[in-house]
Amino acid sequence: MSQLGAAPETVAVDVAPDPVIELREVTREYRVGDDIVVRALRRVSLRIERGDYVAIMGSSGSGKSTLMHIVGCLDSPTSGRYLLDGADVHDIHEDDLADLRNRKIGFVFQAFNLVPRTSALANVELPLTYAGLQRADRRRRALAALDAVGMGDRIHHQPSKLSGGQQQRVAVARAIVTNPSIILADEPTGNLDSHSTHEVLDVFARLNDAGRTVVMITHEEDVAERAARVIRLGDGEILSDVRT
Ligand code: ADP
Ligand code: MG
């Protein structure tokens, strides 16, 4: 009797935490012209647990952006499976997928991609306009997001009046204003000087401390050092995967 009672507990201890991101033998091929196939990812298997902070490194052309596009549901594998929060993305209807992406994932890009001649506040409100929120709610949440990245005192500035680091912090505010559980960043500090780089990395660290999963692509070793886990890609394959 006591042995039977003990068994489930043993099982529970052995089970790994649920991954929020799971790739199973994901291959992504691009067909170029009639007879050339570029294999950007080759049977990549990867699990990322909720709340982790992962840096993806690798030389140019190693497949980093392709990986991020698949993780962000902006692209699909040629073969293999991608499970987001345990659900196979392949089985999700396109409309639901866009909705899922907007709710769960915040994107940050190297080039900031802010709308020019538009205030920081309006830029950050934009994703909420798509989400159909009331004006007062939009404003409240956008102000909170700008506060969270230390830009609460520049909400009426247009991008051209902000430094690169400030623009990227506005872009991070835009990424988090929908309260996504995952932040995906593709070379977010690639255009920044070292001071701005550290400002943006401090913001990522705080977001991660608050429980968000952060996946960040970078070329720079000192940037990757801020992550808890570093995955190196080469030629579409994982070369190493190290917890720091
Ligand atoms: P990284 O972000 O590490 O520089 P990418 O994921 O952008 O690498 O690219 C991986 C490989 O796939 C490269 O050889 C690249 O040329 C190729 N590739 C990426 N996107 C496309 C595309 N849309 N069409 C054809 N080839 C592509
Ligand atoms: Mg890239």
UniProtKB/TrEMBL annotation:
InterPro entries, sorted: AAA+_ATPase, ABC_transporter-like_ATP-bd, ABC_transporter-like_CS, ABC_transpr_LolD-like, MacB-like_ATP-bd, P-loop_NTPase
Organism from which the protein derives: Solirubrobacter ginsenosidimutans
SMART domains noted in UniProt: AAA
Domain ABC transporter: 21-244
Protein name: ABC transporter ATP-binding protein
Gene3D superfamilies noted in UniProt: P-loop containing nucleotide triphosphate hydrolases (3.40.50.300)
Keywords assigned by UniProt, alphabetized: ATP-binding, Nucleotide-binding, Transport
UniProt GO cellular component terms: membrane protein complex; plasma membrane
Molecular function, one GO term: ATP binding
